[in-house]
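User: Quick sanity check before I run a bigger batch. Here is a single chain. Can you write out its predicted 3D structure?
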Amino acid sequence: MTPELKERIENLTKQNKIFVFMKGSKLMPQCGFSNHVVQILNSMAVPYETVDVLEDWDIRQGIKEYSNWPTIPQVYINGEFVGGCDVMNELYENGELEQMVEVALAS
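Assistant: Done. Predicted structure follows.
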């Protein structure tokens, strides 16, 4: 990964309290897993931003190396990697996601 790409990824994750690297956009997800993450965040009525990895090959490959996580979507809260769809679903169901989001938005 180039230093420039690493900096781009870090800027995206740190400039937004909740950030999702996904296939498609939050208005038009392009895969079921990305859609599920969007539905979770929408149901919580929290602000978040996304980037479409289908439109940027460097980001699509680089984010996997950056997080050491092989799949998309990838969710970052307060600049920290949280996980993908399965992790988000588990955190949402057990109430931990709400706590994480509240702390992030309050900081």
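The mean pLDDT is 95.

User: Great, the batch can go ahead then.
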